[in-house]
UniProtKB/TrEMBL annotation:
<dbReference type="InterPro" id="IPR002376">
    <property type="entry name" value="Formyl_transf_N"/>
</dbReference>
<feature type="binding site">
    <location>
        <begin position="12"/>
        <end position="14"/>
    </location>
    <ligand>
        <name>N(1)-(5-phospho-beta-D-ribosyl)glycinamide</name>
    </ligand>
</feature>
<dbReference type="GO" id="GO:0006189">
    <property type="term" value="P:'de novo' IMP biosynthetic process"/>
</dbReference>
<dbReference type="InterPro" id="IPR036477">
    <property type="entry name" value="Formyl_transf_N_sf"/>
</dbReference>
<dbReference type="GO" id="GO:0004644">
    <property type="term" value="F:phosphoribosylglycinamide formyltransferase activity"/>
</dbReference>
<dbReference type="Pfam" id="PF00551">
    <property type="entry name" value="Formyl_trans_N"/>
</dbReference>
<feature type="binding site">
    <location>
        <position position="61"/>
    </location>
    <ligand>
        <name>(6R)-10-formyltetrahydrofolate</name>
    </ligand>
</feature>
<feature type="binding site">
    <location>
        <position position="103"/>
    </location>
    <ligand>
        <name>(6R)-10-formyltetrahydrofolate</name>
    </ligand>
</feature>
<comment type="pathway">
    <text>Purine metabolism; IMP biosynthesis via de novo pathway; N(2)-formyl-N(1)-(5-phospho-D-ribosyl)glycinamide from N(1)-(5-phospho-D-ribosyl)glycinamide (10-formyl THF route): step 1/1.</text>
</comment>
<protein>
    <recommendedName>
        <fullName>Phosphoribosylglycinamide formyltransferase</fullName>
        <ecNumber>2.1.2.2</ecNumber>
    </recommendedName>
</protein>
<feature type="domain" description="Formyl transferase N-terminal">
    <location>
        <begin position="4"/>
        <end position="178"/>
    </location>
</feature>
<keyword id="KW-0658">Purine biosynthesis</keyword>
<feature type="binding site">
    <location>
        <begin position="86"/>
        <end position="89"/>
    </location>
    <ligand>
        <name>(6R)-10-formyltetrahydrofolate</name>
    </ligand>
</feature>
<keyword id="KW-0808">Transferase</keyword>
<comment type="similarity">
    <text>Belongs to the GART family.</text>
</comment>
<dbReference type="GO" id="GO:0005829">
    <property type="term" value="C:cytosol"/>
</dbReference>
<feature type="active site" description="Proton donor">
    <location>
        <position position="105"/>
    </location>
</feature>
Length: 206
């Protein structure tokens, strides 16, 4: 049985894109650290199993991550997809799911890791922006890159118009990356991802 777990903290639009993508999995379980996450409702209406583990109920990061891992392990997932999961994960957690923990980030990594990427792009006068799906390593918003999408930055862009343009691409590339993984087409060396039966440019969308 193939199982995908999606971790969310808020709106859940990337989760929705994954749920709507008809991925080759038998079950999808959505877990949130935030009981008020809008995405939990969306997931339930889409028929996914939902679980909330409120991080405020734990004294520190380690005990929360350990409770989260215990819950995840009950389902023996093939892949865990972070989709707007706004918690820094402990190294132990990341190593436990080595090679099966993916993230989507709203910038062309390794540029602009961290928060407020669209504002920082505008402030720096960057002309090309985008999003990245990558495997998670202990260093925040780093790790082997699976796929990226690039978008132009226009002179009259606001944070909102730019975020919307990037988000549209996020919704395209995350399901693509997860599909490749579930199809067994991804080979991962220490720092590099190879995707079977694709040409190099399939992993970059313009
Ligand atoms: C997305 O833009 C995602 O790339 C970003 O949070 C947003 C969540 O939106 N993730 C990060 O910044 C992780 N570093 P969503 O809840 O609608 O998918």
């Amino acid at each position: 049985m193939k199982t995908l777990i999606i971790l969310i903290s808020g709106r859940g639009s990337n989760m929705r894109a994954l749920l709507e993508a008809r991925l080759p999995v038998d079950r999808i379980i959505v877990i949130s650290n935030n009981p008020a996450a809008e995405g939990l409702q969306t997931a339930a209406t889409k028929g996914a199993q939902t679980i909330c583990i409120n991080h405020h109920a734990f004294s520190d990061r380690t005990t929360f991550d350990s409770a989260l891992a215990d819950e995840i392990d009950r389902y023996q997932p093939d892949l865990i997809a972070l989709a707007g999961f706004m918690r820094i994960l402990t190294d132990d957690f990341v190593f436990r799911y080595h090679r099966r923990l993916m993230n989507i980030h709203p910038s062309l990594l390794p540029a602009f890791p961290g928060l407020h990427t669209h504002k920082r792009v505008l402030d720096d006068g960057v002309k090309i922006h985008g999003c990245t799906v990558h495997f998670v390593t202990p260093k925040l918003d780093h790790g082997p890159i699976v796929i990226q999408a690039a978008v132009p930055v226009f002179p009259n862009d606001t944070e909102k118009t730019l975020a919307d343009r990037v988000l549209k691409q996020e919704h395209r590339i995350y399901p693509q990356a997860v599909r490749w993984f579930l199809q067994g087409r991804i080979r991962l060396t220490e720092n590099t991802v190879f995707i079977a039966d694709t040409c190099v440019h399939d992993s970059v969308i313009y």
